[in-house]
């Protein structure tokens, strides 16, 4: 595990970035990203992250650290002021969300992630609005992962439970066969039992070959299922390592996991 910065309040020189083997281009490679919502105010202050094809990568950290902002920056919803983002080695910095969808990126926001007045089927149709002819094939695929969606396809999404809505949101993002899926706190607001169900589904999606970068407030549970994780603090990398390394590191436990696990 690499310690990359001091915790909140400390000022240290920028750490060296994790080396990626030159023969293996990451599926997603974000380097020294600075981004924010208002002029002159950065939320991300030089964040660096890479995800190899097929990996499940988690991002944890305190509230306000910039976790969700990073996903939105990748997906073209927040302006990147400096740094670069590449997908399969091709620069995607600043591309619009619709173009990123065409290139194989899916995004599931934390809130307002379904169309409540539409049925499950109509929500999934929205997922292939760029290529509607793909609907029958992709609908069969996602209902294999989530059989409930096929059984209740005519039910309005607004009548579903929080966990069921999350399944619809993830399935809609999968309708365009993304190679990269960005998940923003998929367990937020769910009961412990439903959180376990969501994490199980995340692992199942990853097992199909989809690379996943997931922001999660349930830090301990996140680190149990990810291949690698990043701890973000004040918009910078604080720690990086495998899920097991981070979960067992005394500094990470003391500074982050104690409070995050109760968040």
UniProtKB/TrEMBL annotation:
Segments for region (Disordered): 1-23
Q: Which UniProt keywords apply?
A: Amino-acid transport, ATP-binding, Nucleotide-binding, Transport
Q: Pfam families given for it? A: ABC_tran
Provide the GO MF annotations for this entry. Answer: ATP binding; ATP hydrolysis activity; branched-chain amino acid transmembrane transporter activity
PROSITE patterns referenced in this protein's UniProt entry, alphabetically: ABC_TRANSPORTER_1 (PS00211), ABC_TRANSPORTER_2 (PS50893)
Q: Which Gene Ontology BP annotations are present?
A: L-amino acid transport
List each copy of the ABC transporter domain by range.
28-259
Q: Which family does it belong to?
A: Belongs to the ABC transporter superfamily.
Supply the name of the protein: Unannotated protein
């Amino acid at each position: 595990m690499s310690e990359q910065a001091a915790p909140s309040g400390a000022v240290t020189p920028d750490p060296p970035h994790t080396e990626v083997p030159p023969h293996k281009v990451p599926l997603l490679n974000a380097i020294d990203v600075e981004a924010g919502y208002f002029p002159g105010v950065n939320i991300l202050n030089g964040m660096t992250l890479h995800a190899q094809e097929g990996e499940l990568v988690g991002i944890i950290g305190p509230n306000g650290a910039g976790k969700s902002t990073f996903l939105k920056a990748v997906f073209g919803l927040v302006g990147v002021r400096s740094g670069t983002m590449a997908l399969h080695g091709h620069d995607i910095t600043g591309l619009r969300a619709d173009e990123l969808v065409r290139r194989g990126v899916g995004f599931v926001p934390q809130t307002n992630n379904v169309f409540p007045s539409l049925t499950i089927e109509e929500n999934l149709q929205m997922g292939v609005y760029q290529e509607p002819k793909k609907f029958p094939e992709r609908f069969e695929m996602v209902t294999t992962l989530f059989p409930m969606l096929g059984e209740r396809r005519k039910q309005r999404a607004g009548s579903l439970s929080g966990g069921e809505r999350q399944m619809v949101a993830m399935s809609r993002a999968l309708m365009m066969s993304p190679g990269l899926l960005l998940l923003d706190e998929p367990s937020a607001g769910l009961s412990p039992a439903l959180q376990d169900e969501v994490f199980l589904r995340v692992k199942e999606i990853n097992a199909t070959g989809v690379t996943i970068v997931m922001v999660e407030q349930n830090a301990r549970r996140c680190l149990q299922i990810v291949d690698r994780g990043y701890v973000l603090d004040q918009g910078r990398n604080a720690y990086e390592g495998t899920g097991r390394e981070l979960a067992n590191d005394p500094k990470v436990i003391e500074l982050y996991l104690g409070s995050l696990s109760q968040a």
